[in-house]
Each structure stands twice: as C-alpha cells, then as structure tokens.
Amino acid sequence: MTAVDHQLVKRFRQDAGDRIAEQRRQDQVNNVTPMSTEDERQYARAVIAQILEEYARAEINAGRTPLDAETEEQYAAAVHAALFGVGRLQPLLDNPEVENIDINGCDQVFVGYADGREVKADPVAETDEELIELIQVLGAYSGLSSRPFDSANPQLDLRLPDGSRLSAVMDVARRPALSIRRARMGKVFISDLVGNATLSPEVAHFLACAVRARKNIMIAGATNAGKTTLLRALANEIPPHERLITVERALELGLDTFPDLHPNVVAFEERLPNSEGQGAISMAELVRRSLRMNPSRVIVGEVLGDEIVTMLNAMSQGNDGSLSTIHANSSHEVFNRISTYALQASERLPIEASQMLIAGAVNFVVFIQRRNNFGDGGRLQRMVTSVREVNGVDGRVLSSEVFAEAPDGRIVPHAPIACLEELMAHGYRPTGTWG
Fold first, then answer.
1. What is the 3-state secondary structure (H, E, C) of the chain?
2. Tell me: the pLDDT tens digits for 14-24?
3. Whole-prediction pTM value?
4. Does a structural domain hold residue 336?
5. Which residues form the Bacterial type II secretion system protein E domain (predicted)?
C-alpha cells in the first residue's frame, strides 16, 4: 500500500473546502435550500473526485506517472476524513479495538487497545500548529455550537461524530495535548453487558426492574470505568413512549440518535461563553430548563459541579427515574462527593442539608470498576461490583449494600432490598439469598 503524502492531502482538502464553501455561497445567493449534512458529504465526494482527476491530468501533462486507482482511493478517503472526520486520527477511530488515544504533541501518540495493550503510534500531524488547527476545526463543527480553541480558550471538550469524547488543552503544557475516549459501544443494551461480564445476570435483572420502577440511580466509578456505557444501557430500558431530556457538558450519550428506541428526546449541551464572555449557559441552568419542558425523565450525563443541587432537587420533586454518573472510588464515597459538590455550589449547602437532599432524591448507587483480568491474558474487564440502596438519613446518609463482591469474585446479594415489593411489581424476581 502506497504511503499517503499528507501535505498533498492538506492541499486537496483546502481546495475541496473552498469549492464546497463557494457552492454554499451560491446556494444562499440563489435562495436554494441549503444541502443537508448527507447531501454535502455526497457533494464533497464528487468534488474530491474532480480534484483528483484534475491532479492526474496535470501529472500526465508534466510527463509524470499519475496515481494508480488504489492510491487515488486512499487519497479520496484521506481528504474526505480531513473534511468531515478527524484527519489522520480517522484510521484509529475506525479501528473497533482502540479504546483510548492520548496525544502529547503531534508526534507523541499513544493508543490503548481493548486487550490492555498500550502502543506508540504514528504522528497525527506534521507540526503542533497543524494539530491545533485540526482541533480547532473539530471544535467549530462537532458540537451544537462552535467551540473556540485558542490562547483565550485553551481548553476544549466535545463529542466527535462517532460518539467518542475528546478533551484538549493548549498553552497550559509545553505542547498541545488531547485525549480521546472511544465510544466502542454506541447502541448498547443490558444484555450486551451481561454478555461481556460487566453485569451479572442477577444484577442486570435487578437494574432493569429498578429503571422500570422509576428509581433514581447514580452510576459511580473512576475515569474510564464504563459509566457512560452503563448509563446508555440502563436508558435503553426506559419505555419508548417516555419523553427524555439529557443534559451534558459535551454531547456524548446520543440517545436522540436512536429514534427506534427513544423517539422523543431533547439533548441539551452546555454552552461556553463567546470571545466577549457572553452567551454561556451552564449545566445547572440547563437542568432547571429541562424541568420546564415536560420531561418524563431527566438524564444528566456527568455530574461535576454545582448542577448537583439542581439535579437532586429535580429528583426529589417528582421527576422519578432520573439517571446520572459521578466520579467516585466506591459506592459509599458517592455521598461525600455529592456533599462536596453541593458545598461548592452557589447555594452553599451545608453537609447536613446536602445529606438530607441525597436521602430524599437518590434510590440506588451503582459502582462500576475497571480492572485487569489476569485470568484472561491481562485483558481489561469492566464490572459492576457494588449496588447500594439509600435507606434514609440520620445526620448522614444511611445506606445498605444490596449487591456486593464475594471473596470468589462473584457479585451476590448482600443485604435485603427495602423497596423489594415495589421492584417485584415491575417484574423483579430474586434468584439469590441475602447474606
């Protein structure tokens, strides 16, 4: 396979981008309906083919050998990826076994695979300036609104077209850096997580019934533990007639992209301020707004700050069946983590008040871990190891661990479920005995 000249790809991409932009201007002048995203992609393919044909003709006229058909296809794919994808990152994102991509400057690329391997990969740009340019293009086109990435805005979080999560920084490190967390399982169901041993059959059955019973569930775990994937799977247990509103810092859940499962979804994305510092819409504001839009359930993609108080208030005021994720190192630590966020919020809730709010809002905390499974060649394994039920408050949140990890590694019933009868009314049938 012939190596692609990335400088040539850059030239072709610029040419194609100029022609597409000119067509957009012509359509506007002539009052023609703007092309849809798919129409524009198809038009781009035709433009790229035309550019490659012109290039081949120029090579022949100059007495040089033109590109062969296979190489021309490679260039066409590379230019299309540069226009609509993520340039030289695209082959990594096209690989279903890639889990994480960490880039510390254009030529320091480290790839993590599903089997636990960490491999240094080829550069994704010729220079750091080109890498910044690539991130800027992604920031301009990947979200609901343009997100700047420059010296005045040196941080960027967004969802890539394939659902992966990108986080980038510049000017706070020696070189621009970014991390991409792959969304390897988009349309995921609880049965899929049983199949890959993330959930035991008993816990899976329990969680499905808890969702149907409209219990408020917090999913906790460390970074890259699989919280978002588990949240998607639980959300897919929600009946299709319900109206869902999702609130996220950067669109990632993608529930609105599966109308066969969730035909009535509004996906909110936090909006950052513009260059004048205006126009910001925070997560807390979006959670408040969601409550005015007739939601059956509100799903908060990830709680990281002052939106926690608004969300807990929503959960305790009749919006049952809410789901969210939070960073924590154990199911029990979640309560202290929430209290810390509440203390930092504009409401400045004292710990006692936040503990009362938690007890009135959260029904279950599900803890998911990421660990090496040395019995399977060191392959990384994500698994739910604890489910904790909130029972009340007495100065602090009272809870019981209804599922816990046994010494042999199995996840087994551990304490009686207080709302058992309610869950059984929604199909739950315990198969184990509580210790």
1. CCCCCHHHHHHHHHHHHHHHHHHHHHHHHCCCCCCCHHHHHHHHHHHHHHHHHHHHHHHHHCCCCCCCHHHHHHHHHHHHHHHHCCHHHHHHHHCCCEEEEEEECCCCEEEEECCCCEEEECCCCCCHHHHHHHHHHHHHHCCCCCCCCECCECEEEEECCCCCEEEEECCCCCCCEEEEECCCCCCCCHHHHHHCCCCCHHHHHHHHHHHHCCCCEEEEECCCCCHHHHHHHHHCCCCCCCCEEEEECCCCCCHHHCCCCCCCEEEEECECCCCCCCCCECHHHHHHHHCCCCCCEEEEEEECCCHHHHHHHHHHCCCCCCEEEEECCCCCHHHHHHHHHHHHCCCCCCHHHHHHHHHHHCCEEEEEEEEEEHHHCCEEEEEEEEEEEEEEECCCEEEEEEEEECCCCCEEECCCCCCHHHHHCCCCCCCCCCC
2. 899 889 888 88
3. 0.71
4. yes
5. 126-363
